[in-house]
Amino acid sequence: MVEGKKEIQNSLEEFVKSKSTIAIWKTPEGAKQLEEVVSYKKNNPEVSIRTLGEYLKQKCGWNYSSRYIFELIVARLDNENVA
Q: Which of 3, 15, 49, 55 lies at a C-alpha separation of 20 to 30 Å from 67?
């Protein structure tokens, strides 16, 4: 029984390690990429946010869902409009 608990604990620790990676958009490089995309959107409002999200996924190696990237860009645009 104790051995089973150790296996579960080890599996849990591995799971937590795999999920506790640093968010790309919080790194200096990722923050710069996001800022460039937001700036591009502000200067070119006709470009869709989804297109910019695909750019981040394909050219910058972001591995988030399209929806999550969309939300990041929208939130950043909203924050800059408030300031």
A: 15
Tokens 């989804």 sit at which residue? 50
**Whether pLDDT at 60 is above 60:** yes
Distance CA 12, CA 79 (A): 37
- Residue in the structure block whose two tokens are 């860009």: 73
Looking up tokens 């939130």, which residue turns up?
75
Residue 67 has pLDDT above 70, yes or no: yes
The model carries a pTM of: 0.70
- Is 25 in contact with 72 (CB distance < 8 Å)? yes
Taking the C-alpha atoms of residue 38 and residue 59, their distance in angstroms, rounded to an integer, is: 16
